[in-house]
Amino acid sequence: MGTSSSSRSSPPATEAEMLRRNRILSSKLYFDVPPSKVPVIYSTSYDIAFLGIEKLHPFDSSKWGRICQFLTKEGALDKNKIVEPLEASKDDLLVVHPESYLEGLKSSLKVSMIMEVPPVAMLPNSLVQKKLLRPIRLQVGGSVLAAKAAKERGWAINVGGGFHHCSAEEGGGFCAYADITLCIQYAFARLNIDRVMIIDLDAHQGNGHETDFCNDRRVYIMDMYNSEIYPLDFAARRYIDQKIELMSGTRTKEYLEQLEKALEVAANRFDPDLVIYNAGTDILDGDPLGRLKISPDGVVMRDEKVFNFAKNKNRPIVMLTSGGYMKSSARVIADSIINLANKNLIDLQTCINSKQ
């Protein structure tokens, strides 16, 4: 991996590829972000709440809203400067997902298995679509738009997204749509981008995007994860360009040392046009699913290192918030975003002048 596709002669586009390209070019998900806004993408409709059923999964489904509340209440971010994305339509999703997969989501049983909330199986699918899948489709729209905003401004944060267990053909692990794959396919088609690096630092292996880009040499994947927990997808692990496998109980000092070395290796191996950073906070000490022991300050330092990596390469970066299964995650993410602003790695105030 690591060779630009532009250096190889391309075969004639198939009918399916042309259809995909036409869908991307006609999509409404890419719109011009006004100069008065900053590239922080969020909608109040991201949060998932219906009948209390969301509480049956350890994921904090109000995390996204609470991140923005912390940022706005503390004066770090003016809520009027936040960019609200559009919901990914069926045509948008068909860029990556086959029709059969999207049809499968019309089964509440199927959705309940993907989202790991069994009672969802008993609900009318119209309710499941409205209360559960629509918020996720909005976050998908946010991830797609984030690449365009990052290309224009140097960085973008989708205060959501990062559904890295979903591939084109299969969802799982609370991930119903492959937003990372969609984000990258749109960037290839519309942003004059040829090479993308995914830095996946969620506690879990990102088997969805690994499966989707298994034969795509334009995409370089660095994945640092707890090798002892879900998804244990050994087939997808073969497609990781640079894997850093951690053991349960890994602590902050060792984690940050491993990350620093890994970023040095990545910098030497691959020169991307765009960095996608999957910044899960399930690495936090106490997270019931991540099983690592990283301190809140460790998460802040982790994010700073990744943004410095992009800055040193002078490359745009997209941050997705991904997993995080404790109520404390939202506070830590907000603190990290404030730290990035304090270190001049992002600019939450001056809007259009926030290029890196």
Description of the structure:
This protein is α/β, with parallel strands linked by helices. Helix content is 40%, strand content 9%. The protein has a seven-stranded parallel beta sheet, sandwiched between helices. Strand 6, helix 11 (296-313) and strand 7 (317-320) form a beta-alpha-beta unit. Helix 2 packs across helix 12. The longest helix is centred in the middle third of the chain and has 29 residues, at 125-153.
Q: Write down the overall geometry.
A: globular
Number of helices: 12
CATH class: Alpha Beta
User: SSE order, as H and E?
Assistant: HEHHHHHEHEHEHEHEHEH
- Identify the strand order in the major beta sheet: 1-2-7-6-3-4-5
Protein name: histone deacetylase
Subcellular location: Nucleus
EC number: 3.5.1.98
Keywords: Chromatin regulator, Hydrolase, Nucleus, Repressor, Transcription, Transcription regulation
